[in-house]
Design goal:
Layout lengths: L1 E4 L8 E3 L2 H10 L2 E3 L8 H15 L12 E8 L2 E8 L2 E5 L8 H8 L4 H25 L3 H5 L6
Antiparallel strand pairs: 1-2, 1-3, 4-5, 5-6
Length: 152
């Protein structure tokens, strides 16, 4: 939105701002909207090009796609894979590829404790089963509350 400041420290300045901010300033009487020239007039095409140039410039809130290559490891239980990310797209390798950095190769070859990962997964499963059993015993749903046996 293009506005001209009238009753503010920026009085007389014409600028493009976000629509929500512009509408607020106009409603508060601090600015007035600058209308587009009539369609087909000499200034109309220039105004549209100005709008288009502003729309194509990057914004601070735009998502930045990482550029370049990054390497890492991904482990799930006893399986470890090498992850290569190039410009935001990831590839997974069962063994380090030829262009893999040496530090990632060393971490890949380092001894791991798969028993600890399996034990953690089993402990999580056990806790999940216990929680499900407690939930079933509580019967806190509508029907469980309506038809709960009363203590005599």
């Amino acid at each position: 939105m293009k506005i001209k400041h009238i009753n503010s420290p920026k009085a007389g300045i014409v600028e493009h701002i976000r629509n929500d901010v512009g509408l607020t300033l106009v409603a508060a009487g601090l600015a007035e909207e600058v209308a587009l020239p009539p369609r087909g007039s000499a200034g109309w095409l220039a105004a549209r090009k100005e709008q288009s140039a502003l729309a194509t410039t990057p914004d601070a809130a735009d998502t930045v796609v990482p550029s370049g290559t990054s390497w890492g490891l991904y482990q799930q239980l006893d399986k470890v894979v090498v992850v290569k990310t190039v410009n935001g797209e990831s590839s997974f390798y069962e063994t380090p590829p030829s262009d893999c950095p040496e530090d990632v190769r060393q971490r890949f070859r380092a001894p791991r404790n798969p028993a600890a990962a399996v034990a953690a997964a089993e402990e999580f499963d056990k806790a999940t089963r216990e929680q499900m059993a407690r939930d079933a015993a509580d019967k806190t749903g509508v029907f469980g509350t309506l038809f709960r046996k009363r203590a005599s």
